[in-house]
TrEMBL record:
Span of the signal peptide: none
Family: Belongs to the oxygen-dependent FAD-linked oxidoreductase family.
Keyword Ribosomal protein: no
Gene Ontology molecular function terms on file: FAD binding; oxidoreductase activity, acting on paired donors, with incorporation or reduction of molecular oxygen
InterPro entries with a match to the protein in the record: BBE (IPR012951), FAD-bd_PCMH (IPR016166), FAD-bd_PCMH-like_sf (IPR036318), FAD-bd_PCMH_sub1 (IPR016167), FAD-bd_PCMH_sub2 (IPR016169), FAD-linked_Oxidoreductase (IPR050416), Luciferase-like_dom (IPR011251), Luciferase-like_sf (IPR036661)
UniProt keyword terms in alphabetical order: FAD, Flavoprotein, Oxidoreductase
Highest taxon in the source lineage: Bacteria
Plastid among keywords: no
Domain FAD-binding PCMH-type: 342-513
Cofactor(s) listed: FAD
Name of the protein this chain belongs to: FAD-linked oxidase
Length: 755
């Protein structure tokens, strides 16, 4: 007896008759309504009285919501594999993970030749199918670098671009009967899909043995391969139902079949199969498996098991996180490994949905012997929210946004929400929140570190508006921190939050925000030593309703360096904005200017579609009180030497400096600008690091979110004097073991110092 322990699934095999096109779609919808799992269609492109299978699959996907869809099986000789791979991936994305790929090597060669296909011998057809699988898998492997290269005799790929990544791990099922095809299934396929009426020699048991032996020889576990079957039989009477149930239970327990597909165009048979046959087969098989102690559940491939990292106990992942952990070898690992800029290779990514699941994740992480990174949006320039070989706790699914009090602007938000989403949620109420300059930045990382946004001079940092935080601590306890509860922790979270726990919710007070004036002014920066101080003086002298960021890039193709000032004014009245903008027109030689009245939501719109950072960025940062001629000369040198791809000054000052230096862990309350410079590639990074020390000597503190360096002295620049001493005492209180040690870790004070 052979039972591979797969979850049982049931489906239909519907004739794609072109003369009854609406009825075909209706039968697929009935398949779903009857509680079945799968609708399949034969593919004979040379049959003029059949609907095209791929067009039909796409149409049915739009007319259904739950069932999976597949060809049974698609005719490979008439479907180019690279194009088919993209088509399947696209349908899978559009249907939210409901496409599977049934493939056949080809039959009815006269029809295939009539459609322009090449006739192959049985052996050639198997070779062509194997090459096609390599091409298809290569296209789907969107996380791998380089193009797809398959130098086959029948199918080739000469650097084809990879992607898109399907929404789920699409299975490749092969319709096969003969030993050579069965061996191919064992080596490379995910499923065997024969028809019961065609299995003669080899028998079912012999076929399974061939598949299993080939799988073992290829280093695979035979349980990785699902056994599907097109079954027959009438369903007109209770006796018919009883006979089919008995047959399917036997196929499941004795031969390991787990997907049963009914070839039928009869609505009554489909309803009976879903409502009477499937539940009874499931019940009997579950009972027998329980009695026999059969191993059930998903099977990880040997390749995926080999990718696991030392120091992580994968078998003890909390049950509460089952289905929400991602490890190397998983289909969507490439979607979660990296951040906006940095390429990561963590050993496990945990994606909790609730505060309780965060607690489970932290308790689990504390038992592992690897680093722990915490990720909200993954946009951080510093790259601290991924790692190599460690754990990543991704709170992206804690992303709810709720306005609690429209009058005061108090709102509650999960750390995984993105600031563009927050802006969109608050805008209908005439409210907003300054939050950086990009809508895809995550709430948690920014609101616990600073938040230098377009309203900073008027309304301060984002963290200045945090009224409360709910946090899971290193010991797994759950606390609320505000001015009355755990006030010391509340102080630390606003500026050094990554060191003290995982925030699961924040409460912030928004303020009135309507349309704004957004201007972009472009300067010739050939005389940077003069232009930069004048821009800084103009910003400082401007009303607080105006905040400006200046982005500088080196010269290219013989042109000199340029700078673009983004200016945001909290008003939609041109008569108010014009006198504020006027002084900026004389800062330096103008290359262009434009101004708009736009909603704030348009300025920070979220367009998140995933992160796949390539890495290689070195970023240096610091805070500026006075932009002196000497500092301007150093910045000009960076541009002239090609030591940075981009450099930016962000205005702070104003309301940021109204807050006392000891009121939050972010203690920089007298500076006027934040400066950062980034370099891609080793050569440029070396040039940046050669010049940066002379610039750094003139800076006054550090905003850590823009710094990729890890040297201990940076911590002292970020948290000056008494601030760092206080943080070290609190670290000893809340995280003495240093569990949260990946985001500019603060060493806990000794017992004596803590006391």
């Amino acid at each position: 007896m052979t039972d591979y322990g797969h979850e049982l699934k049931f489906g239909t095999f519907i004739t794609p008759s072109a003369q009854q096109a609406d009825d075909v779609v209706a039968l697929a919808q009935l398949t779903e309504a009857a509680g079945l799992d799968l609708a399949t269609f034969q593919d004979h492109p040379y049959q003029s009285n059949f609907l095209d299978a791929w067009t039909l699959l796409s149409f049915v996907a739009a007319k259904t919501e739950r069932i999976s869809l597949a060809g049974n099986v698609l005719n490979l000789p008439l479907r180019q594999p690279a194009v088919l791979a993209r088509a399947v991936a696209s349908l899978d994305l559009l249907s939210h993970g409901r496409a599977e790929l049934g493939l056949g090597a080809g039959a009815f060669w006269d029809g295939i030749k009539g459609m322009g296909g090449e006739e192959l011998t049985p052996g050639q057809a198997v070779d062509a199918l194997e090459e096609a699988i390599d091409v298809i898998r290569g296209i789907w492997d969107a996380g791998k670098s380089g193009g797809v290269r398959v130098d086959g005799k029948y199918h080739k790929a000469a650097g084809a671009r990879r992607g898109p990544l399907p929404a789920h791990g699409v299975s490749i099922w092969l319709g096969a009967l003969k030993p050579r095809m069965l061996k191919l299934i064992g080596r490379k396929a995910d499923g065997w899909l024969p028809s019961m009426s065609y299995i003669k020699s080899p028998t079912i048991a012999e076929s399974n043995a061939i598949i299993d032996a080939a799988a073992v020889e290829a280093g695979r576990d035979p349980r990785e391969i699902r056994r599907l079957i097109n079954v027959g039989g009438r369903l007109a009477t209770p006796e018919d139902v009883e006979a089919l149930v008995e047959q399917l239970v036997g196929l499941a327990l004795e031969h390991g079949f787990s997907t049963f597909i009914l070839p039928s165009d009869a609505p009554g048979a489909i309803e009976t199969f879903g409502k009477d046959v499937a539940p009874e087969v499931r019940a009997q098989v579950e009972k027998a498996r329980k009695a026999a102690g059969t191993q059930t559940g998903p099977v990880r491939s040997a390749q995926a098991l080999a990718a696991r990292r030392a120091g992580i106990d994968y078998d003890s992942v909390p049950a509460a996180l089952a289905g929400r952990v991602i490890e190397p070898g998983d289909h969507d690992f490439s979607k979660h490994r990296s951040t906006y800029i940095h390429k990561g290779n963590p050993g496990l990514v945990m994606r909790p949905r609730t505060a309780e699941e965060v607690r489970e994740a932290i308790t689990y992480a504390a038992r592992q012997d690897v680093p722990l990174a915490v990720r909200s949006g993954g946009h951080g320039i510093s790259g601290r929210s991924t790692n190599d070989g460690g754990l990543v706790l991704d709170v992206g699914q804690l992303n709810s946004i709720r306005l609690m009090d429209e009058k005061t602007g108090l709102f509650r938000v999960g750390p995984g929400a993105r600031w563009g989403e927050v802006a969109t949620a608050l805008a209908p109420h005439g409210l907003g929140m300054s939050s950086g300059d990009y809508g895809d930045v995550g709430v948690g990382g920014l609101a616990t570190a600073g938040g230098i946004g377009y309203f900073a001079r008027k309304h301060g940092l984002t963290l200045d508006h945090v009224q409360a935080a709910e946090v899971v601590l290193a010991d797994g306890s759950f606390v609320r921190a505000d001015r009355e509860n755990h006030a010391d922790l509340f102080w630390a979270l606003r500026g050094a939050g990554g060191n003290f726990g995982v925030v699961t919710a924040l409460e912030l007070d928004a303020y009135p925000v309507g349309n704004v004036v957004f201007a972009q002014l472009t300067y010739d920066l050939s005389d940077a030593e003069s232009v930069l101080p004048r821009w800084a003086e103009t910003v400082i002298a401007a009303p607080r309703e105006l905040t400006s960021f200046l982005t500088m890039v080196p010269g290219r193709s013989g042109s000199g360096p340029i700078a673009q000032a983004s200016v945001v004014i909290m008003s939609d009245d041109p008569s108010v904005a014009e006198p504020m903008l006027q002084p900026f027109l004389s800062v330096g030689p103008m290359l262009g200017s434009q101004a708009y009245i736009i909603p704030y939501t348009a300025l920070v719109a979220s367009h998140f579609s995933g992160h796949d950072g390539a890495g290689g960025l070195v970023s240096r940062a610091g805070l500026v009180t006075d932009l002196t001629p000497t500092l301007a000369e150093g910045m000009a040198e960076l541009l002239a030497a090609g030591a940075t791809n981009m450099m930016q000054l962000r205005a702070v000052g104003g309301a940021v400096n109204d807050v006392g230096a000891d009121e939050t862990a972010y203690a920089h309350r007298h500076q006027n600008f934040s400066l950062n410079a980034g370099a891609y590639g080793d050569a440029m990074a070396r040039r940046l690091d050669a010049i940066w020390p002379s610039i750094s000597a003139q800076l006054d503190g550090l905003y850590l979110n823009f710094e990729t360096g890890t040297e201990p002295h940076l911590l002292e620049k970020a948290f000056p004097g008494k601030t760092l001493a206080r943080l070290r005492r609190l670290k000893a209180k809340y995280d003495p073991g240093g569990l949260f040690n990946s985001n500019f870790p603060i060493p806990p004070a000794s017992e004596e110092a803590a006391a």
